[in-house]
Amino acid sequence: MAQITLDNIAHSFNPYPGSNADYALKNIDYQWDDGGAYALLGPSGCGKTTLLNIISGLLTPSNGRVLYDSNDMTLLTPELRNIAQVFQFPVIYDTMTVAENLAFPLVNRGVDRSEINKRVDDMLQTLELSDKANRRAQGLTADEKQKISLGRGLVRYDVSAILFDEPLTVIDPHMKWQLRTKLKSLHEQFGHTMIYVTHDQTEALTFADKVVVMYEGNVLQVGTPEELFDQPEHTFVGYFIGSPGMNIFPASINGQTLTLGSNNVKLSKGYSNLNGKTEVGIRPEFISLASKEKAGTRGMKFKLDTVEDVGRLKIVRGKIEDVTVNVIVDEDDSIPTEPYAVFDPERICVYQDSFLIRGDA
Length: 361
Ligand code: ATP
Hints:
Blueprint: E1 4-11, E2 25-32, E3 37-41, H1 48-56, E4 63-68, E5 71-72, H2 78-81, E6 83-86, H3 98-108, H4 113-126, H5 142-154, E7 161-165, H6 173-190, E8 194-198, H7 201-207, E9 210-215, E10 218-223, H8 225-230, H9 235-240, E11 247-250, E12 252-260, E13 263-271, E14 278-282, E15 287-290, H10 292-295, E16 300-301, E17 303-310, E18 313-320, E19 323-330, E20 340-343, E21 349-352, E22 355-357
Helix pairs in contact: 3-4, 3-5
Bound molecules: adenosine-5'-triphosphate.
Adenosine-5'-triphosphate is lined by residues 13, 24, 42, 44-50, 199.
């Protein structure tokens, strides 16, 4: 296992890049802790696969270095990096049996036969494939084949890291949850450094200890699921994490007062010297709806649009003056006929030119 350092990595697929826009990865400087479980999360095209391929050695970066512990790996092939990779689609040998497929990476490395048998048996049980151990892979379903691909990565205990590129895309939804949980417990058991690429926030937040949020070739924030939820460092993180994401709208702030249309809201902190584009973010979970009397002076008239029932919660969509605002309430909460929105002042985030500003104490 290894600590992985990305030292000022940038990458352009254009051999003669001119401007910043020619770079698929802009400037990434980050250290992945030995034994950490990370998710690389971001929308399609933001550079997740490019970054993973640079870590694995499938791609050499245009600039910067990749270190495993203190060893410079930048120019080494994946074989020489001692990593396991699991891709979106199964990579297995159709003519081999399930057990032979799982044993293959260990046979290749000259692992002792009795050790191979033990690990293959364990993995067959983990993946619930014991009854198919001696079947050829050829006739298996896409789900089962991908489970074998995962198993081929996980049987190797000696790897520096295991890299997953959207590995559950072809797996059915019920099995997805099961395999994700399994990956997490295998991580706890063996402590491999794991990096898991996905554009699905549920996958990222349930698998990883730390989530790396990417957007347009940049890393915007690295944090625990709680940090990304509570204190998004960038408006994109606020909007991308959560369902629905954070409400973000332009507002003017003067010291400790937020002005939204004709409403003034007292903030828990003061903000001096704001300049540039000022926006305010608040998650739908931290807005409540009350009658005018109950809301008191903190209430802002809320023009209700729709109410969506999503199991134990309701998503209430509406407007405060001309700003669209989503609110999440419990399914049993009743919504007043003339609702007023109340923001929890402790949960209001202030952004300047899209980046979080921490107010004065
Ligand atoms: P997805 O979730 O859709 O797989 P991603 O976040 O993994 O997306 P990448 O595949 O890393 O994104 O792509 C980042 C950018 O680099 C995109 O603009 C993509 O079009 C571009 N790109 C990726 N591979 C190549 C290539 N071989 N040649 C040219 N451009 C490429």
